Structure to design on (782 residues):
């Protein structure tokens, strides 16, 4: 696997990610990987001790991971939130908006294209967990 | 009409730049078709039977003369001189070149239009009542609400890879002119204790498993609209089926969970969403509403009409609708000429309609889900002059809501999903029933034709519906009876074995003959059908 | 017989494999037998065609005729707009589709 692209300053978390079942059973794991169909809310009681949550995208069209990320960030999760799997460069901007701050795509991304995509839109219509002010807020102060 | 501010304009301009870059990457081979497809679809660009097809959004069906003229310009410059108005208040161009698509989007952006999210598994164009702002029976204009939803749903990061496409309609009267309950979310504005809010219906739809959306909340206040919609969508995004494309629409989730369980989950999510600050303040709704203020109606405009020209009288009787303002009328331009293609308009016709809107309708037009065009605010004293100009251009068929005002999807003549052609049927039926006296004798009769089970031609909701199927490589047509997309929403039932093209038209004639025989007083076709029941019609058709 | 079809990447035009190139006219299509996977792959990778696929057809006096009506509509154009088909001068062209 290629090295993860990170938008965080802290060190890479070394502990391997375990499955959702394992982290629910095993009180000391600090990294977990959830599959697309798994309920991110089951992790909410554990957020304080988790440093890395990896959300898998089996195919780019499976958008469940976007909601999983939002749910985790809405609940105050501050650790690394990594999107892995079929993650494409034209999706990164939306993933950032939903709270992902690390990416481990199956196929390498062109960093130039990615940077361009991330800088493209200087305004947004909706509030999400990235805390950018939606356009309606800019209009009404 | 709504006008973009600098933010809205920047968003669509950015989208054009983004798509221009994506097209270049595709043409250069940096993107495969698999990777490019979802990107082009989110900009309304399909690869259809004959070429690329571009679907342009006409948000809640409202547009200005300038915007309409741009649609004509695109038809002339980039297509083959015509456009096709669809059953979702959009327009489609059938002969688009990929290399031209970014320029077309730039042209659209120059008049505050776009093709964003007119395809793909995302929230599609928000549709509404084509008479909004003009109808005598509405409690408030639904379009400000639709515009709030348009902005919220555009580029929504969480809901752009849903299990399947997602359609929302907003209405504000008891009469439903937008097939509201056949949408993924149907919203009806209502008053409760003097406050304006939204009633939510979720899980309606047509397609291969038609369903009427049940009501899941009787009142959502204006300042909680977005968080409630987010809750509806999040439950769907998380739990809607992704294993089978034909079971992936929200109607299946609501059906499988049951309305109560789906509602419970939405309410739980809503309670959480309400705390997240997702809702624009009421000032934003007020800001948008100002754009939809009434035009400067003449307060003393006369209701008198000289109906001495019999053809004009027929058109007024059939194609104008009561306006909320005395002295004004809503005029419907039928795009269903005898033997014509439902919903098609040439660039010259589009230009003319733009001119007429500027001249006679306060610069406003509407597109209807039954593929016609509306001039919403015409002074009654202008109707005769308007009609004459329409008539000269072949735009004055006096057949609104009659049997020849049929809805038809593009069918196998244009669509790669279709199993049978639908347009030739609409043409032949309009020839067979060409006599206007006969049409008027039959009265309101909604005929809807789809060329495949996906039901873009709304056959489930036709008083009479036709579904084209492929029977061993030959086109075959099933006949359905008893559907309605109006406030008395119902789903049509198949009469029995299918027919050839001519056979199904004969069967329609049999069915309408029986109606005329059985009709009591002023019953419409659908009323008689409901009273008499399927068996009598079946007997008449199949013996 | 089997023939290959797809769309031109840039223009979207319906095209048919002639054995060495892509033509707008189904009359130019050649029988590829069963060995077409490599052609599909190579031609798509070179972006000389978009989403190509093989279809069944029969050879007639006028040339290959696709077995399925959908591909015959693709080959000719919309039957409801003869003026926009590849044979605008032939009013009977639509009969070939049905």
């Amino acid at each position: 696997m290629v090295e993860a692209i990170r938008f965080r300053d802290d060190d890479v978390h070394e502990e391997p990610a375990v499955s959702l079942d394992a982290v629910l059973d095993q009180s000391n794991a600090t990294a977990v990987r959830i599959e697309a169909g798994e309920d991110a809310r089951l992790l909410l009681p554990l957020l304080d001790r988790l440093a890395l949550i990896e959300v898998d995208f089996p195919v780019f069209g499976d958008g469940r991971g976007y909601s999983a990320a939002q749910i985790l960030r809405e609940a105050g999760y501050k650790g690394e939130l990594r999107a892995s799997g079929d993650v494409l460069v034209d999706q990164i901007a939306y993933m950032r908006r939903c709270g992902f701050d690390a990416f481990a795509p199956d196929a390498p991304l062109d960093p130039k294209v990615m940077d361009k995509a991330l800088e493209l839109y200087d305004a947004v219509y909706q509030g999400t967990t990235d805390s950018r002010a939606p356009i309606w807020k800019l209009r009404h102060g | 009409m709504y006008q973009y501010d600098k933010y809205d304009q920047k968003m669509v301009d950015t989208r054009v730049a983004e798509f221009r870059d994506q097209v270049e990457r595709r043409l250069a081979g940096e993107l495969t078709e698999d990777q490019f497809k979802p990107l082009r679809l989110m900009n309304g660009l399909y690869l259809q039977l004959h070429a690329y097809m571009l679907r342009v959004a006409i948000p809640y069906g409202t547009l200005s003369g300038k915007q309409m003229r741009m649609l004509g310009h695109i038809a002339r410059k980039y297509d083959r001189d015509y456009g096709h108005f669809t059953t979702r208040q959009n327009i489609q161009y059938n002969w688009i070149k990929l290399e031209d698509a970014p320029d077309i989007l730039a042209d659209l952006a120059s008049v505050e239009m776009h093709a964003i999210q007119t395809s793909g598994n995302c929230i599609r164009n928000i549709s509404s009542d084509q008479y909004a702002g003009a109808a005598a029976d509405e409690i408030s204009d639904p379009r400000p609400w639709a515009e709030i939803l348009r902005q919220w749903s555009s580029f929504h990061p969480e809901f752009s890879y849903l299990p399947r496409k997602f359609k929302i309609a907003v209405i504000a009267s008891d009469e439903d002119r937008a097939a509201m309950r056949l949408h993924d979310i149907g919203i009806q504005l209502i008053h409760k204790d003097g406050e304006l809010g939204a009633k939510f219906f979720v899980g309606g739809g047509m397609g291969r498993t038609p369903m009427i959306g049940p009501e899941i909340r009787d009142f959502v206040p204006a300042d909680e609209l977005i968080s409630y919609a987010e809750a509806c969508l999040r439950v769907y995004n998380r739990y809607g089926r992704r294993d089978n494309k034909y079971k992936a629409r929200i109607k299946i989730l609501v059906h499988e969970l049951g309305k109560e369980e789906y509602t419970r989950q939405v309410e739980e999510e809503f309670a959480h969403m309400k705390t997240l600050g997702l809702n624009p303040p009421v000032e934003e709704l007020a800001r948008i509403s100002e754009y939809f203020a009434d035009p400067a109606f003449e307060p003393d405009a006369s209701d008198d009409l000289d109906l001495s020209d019999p053809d004009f009288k027929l058109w007024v009787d059939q194609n104008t609708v009561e306006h909320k303002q005395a002295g004004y009328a809503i005029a419907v331009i039928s795009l269903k000429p005898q033997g014509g293609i439902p919903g098609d308009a040439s660039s010259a016709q589009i230009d003319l309609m733009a001119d007429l809107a500027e001249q006679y309708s306060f610069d406003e037009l509407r597109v209807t889900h039954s593929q016609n065009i509306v001039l919403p605010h015409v002074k009654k004293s202008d109707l005769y002059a308007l009609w004459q100009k329409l008539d000269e251009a072949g735009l004055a068929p006096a057949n609104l809501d009659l049997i020849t005002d049929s809805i038809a999807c593009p069918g196998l003549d244009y669509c790669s999903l279709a199993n049978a052609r639908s347009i030739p049927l609409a043409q032949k039926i309009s020839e067979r029933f060409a006599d206007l006296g006969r049409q008027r004798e039959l009265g309101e009769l909604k005929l809807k034709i789809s060329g495949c089970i996906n039901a873009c031609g709304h056959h489930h909701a036709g008083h009479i519906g036709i579904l084209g199927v492929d029977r061993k490589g030959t086109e075959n047509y099933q006949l359905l009876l008893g559907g309605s997309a109006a406030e008395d929403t119902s789903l049509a039932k198949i009469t029995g074995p299918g027919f050839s093209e001519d056979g199904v038209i004969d069967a329609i004639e049999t069915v309408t003959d029986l109606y005329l025989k059985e009709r009591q007083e002023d019953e419409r076709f659908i009323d008689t059908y409901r009273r008499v029941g399927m068996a009598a019609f079946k007997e008449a058709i199949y013996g | 017989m089997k023939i290959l079809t797809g769309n031109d990447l840039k223009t979207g035009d319906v095209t048919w494999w002639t054995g060495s190139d892509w033509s707008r006219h189904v009359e130019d299509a050649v029988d590829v037998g069963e060995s077409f996977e490599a052609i599909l792959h190579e031609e798509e990778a070179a972006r000389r065609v978009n989403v190509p696929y093989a279809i069944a057809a029969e050879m007639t006096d006028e040339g290959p005729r696709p077995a399925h009506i959908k591909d015959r509509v693709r080959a000719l154009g919309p039957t409801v707009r003869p003026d926009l088909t590849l044979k605008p001068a032939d009013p009977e062209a639509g009969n070939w589709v049905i």
User: Anything to note?
Assistant: The radius of gyration of chain A is 15 Å. Chain A has a mean pLDDT of 94. The first strand of chain A starts at residue 5 and ends at 6. Residues 5-140 of chain A form a domain with the Rossmann fold fold (CATH 3.40.50).
